[in-house]
């Protein structure tokens, strides 16, 4: 029920020590991209928590 984005270009192993920071950075970049185009997007913290809670 919405847009799904796969950011495989910067994929890293979940065990990488900086994986969560990379994910936060990527989420912020994607949200900024869509906000600049006038789209309503969820807060980056909510998106991060939703993704992390899936794994």
SSE inventory with pairings:
Layout: H1 19-36, H2 44-54
Question: Would you write up a description of this structure?
Answer:
This protein has 55 residues and is mainly α. The protein has a domain of 38 residues. Helix content is 53%, strand content 0%. The protein has 2 helices and no strands.
Strand content: under 5%
CA-atom Rg in angstroms: 12 Å
What is the average per-residue confidence, as pLDDT, rounded to a whole number?
89
For the largest beta-sheet, the strand count, sense and barrel status come to:
none
Choose one word for the global shape: globular
Number of alpha- plus pi-helical segments? 2
Number of strands: 0
Relative helix content: 40-55%
Structural class comes to mainly alpha
Low-confidence stretches: none
List keywords for this structure.
55 residues, mainly alpha, 2 helices
Brief summary of the model shown:
By secondary structure, the protein is mainly α. Helix content is 53%, strand content 0%.
């Amino acid at each position: 029920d919405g847009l799904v984005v796969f950011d495989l270009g910067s994929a890293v192993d979940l065990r990488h020590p900086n994986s969560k920071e990379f994910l936060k950075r990527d989420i912020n970049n994607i949200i900024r991209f869509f906000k600049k185009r006038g789209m309503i997007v969820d807060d980056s913290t909510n998106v991060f928590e939703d993704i992390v809670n899936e794994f």
